[in-house]
Amino acid sequence: VFIGSEAVRQGRLSPYRLRKRFRAIYPDVFLAECATPSLRTRSVAAWLWSGRRGVVAGLAAAALHGARWIDDDVPIELIWRNQHAPAGVITRNQRVQRDEVTRAVGLPVTTVARTAFDLARQLPTGEAVARLDALMRATPFRVGQVWLLAKRYPGARGLRRLRRALPLIDAGAASPRETWLRLLLIDAGLPAPETQIPVNEN
């Protein structure tokens, strides 16, 4: 995946060859005509579209941190100020500090804690907990770090959702279905079930 105008300007491709052998996935961002873009490829493409200035966030960031159960076609979220995002990209005009950005697969990505902070605020509680369970299982993080971000951004949208979701995180959930069942039991007034209990065959 590459920026078309850069490739032409640098003499790596002619305009004719660019049109014939490649297709635009986002404005001026191309990949091979026959390629099926993965989430990782689309994340790189979205970052290139931003002029290499955006920070990958949300579900795309969670996937790049290793979280499972995220489809390749989810919108790529970027923290970057631009109101004219192409289809398949969501831009968020939000503050992000240096200590909330890391790198994954060569891209600037929100840290695991900042990713959890965003997911917990932006998604309905049930979905948020499932996504947070998967993120915690893939790349363990301290929930306390997420609470610190809530203190850093006291006026951020969705903090009420965050306060509901964070206490429900359980890295022992091996799938969204397990998360859903656990939340169903809790909603019914039962104690939170203990997950992944070792069983002795003897």
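Above is the first protein from milestone M3; the second protein from the same milestone is given next.
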Amino acid sequence: MHERNEEMKNSLDSLWKRGCDFLGVQHAILGGAMTWVSEFNLVSAISNAGGFGVLACGAMSSDLLIQQIRKTKEMTKKPFGVNLILMHPDIMELASACVKEGVTHVFLAGGFPEAKLIDFLKKENVNVIAFAPSLIMAKKLIRMGADALVIEGMEAGGHIGPVSTTVLAQEILPHIKDVPVFVAGGIGRGEAIASYLKMGASGCQLGTKFVCAYESQVHANFKRAFMRANARDAVVSTQIDERFPVIPVRGLSNQGTKDFLQCQRQVIEKVDKGELTLKDGQLEIERYWAGALRKAVVDGDVEHGSLMAGQSVGMVSKEESVSDIIQGLVTEAQTFLKPLNRAAPL
């Protein structure tokens, strides 16, 4: 039995060694960056448990981001990263803050990064991780200098693309060998992690799985909503006018979902009347999510706030420690990878 357990462990260790080495961690399990959720308490707990925590910068100022980085460093000596949203108006200032604070890994999300941003981070010896929505974009990001990629499918919570995780994995993993690739979107168990590792991934990123951890500081109402939900409750927001290319957002259906449709209608009416420019209208719609998410996560208004959640929410049924969550994922992956070629005992 001891020999078999060692084989299982070594198999998992071998499969995600590249990801572990790149991140500097024991387990190539990343905590997906979630605005208002992935703050220093949760991020440090993930890193302390052997995973890789990622701070969500969201709409923070550089001063607030620096505070979060420093507080995280007070709570862990292990590696962690920072996720920057590319549409942030002060993106270069935020990147500079990461460099000054000694952040080793920066994730660039929510768009396609400019070459000058990647070049700046690379010159400062920061590992750059970019999100690739397709094989063509993955290859382009690597040519631009990305050190690793995340491919995130539409099963994820929050802002999503149009393609499923399994299709993205099949499209990209067999062809990208130059850099580590981490898979995200709809992952809630270790068996799924092991499957993507066997396909060529270097690790996996999970967000929804960590929302109800003891160390997560979200409002109790927010956690209860997650623990009561199933996969079918995590629906995608509706776009009602093609002039307003609202990035689809996956979350739990509530009154806020209906409020968002009304928000779109009101903005469209203002634009049609000439009271708002098209660009300002698009920004107003996008700002809706920032306020609605805070309303749910921080204030606990789960009826009118935004309950961004991935489809794996149905696998979140209780509060537990980050350490137990990660160990559970590792055990599931190891068990899934157990050798099948041994003769059954007589």
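Note on the second protein: Residues 341-346 have pLDDT under 50 and may be disordered.
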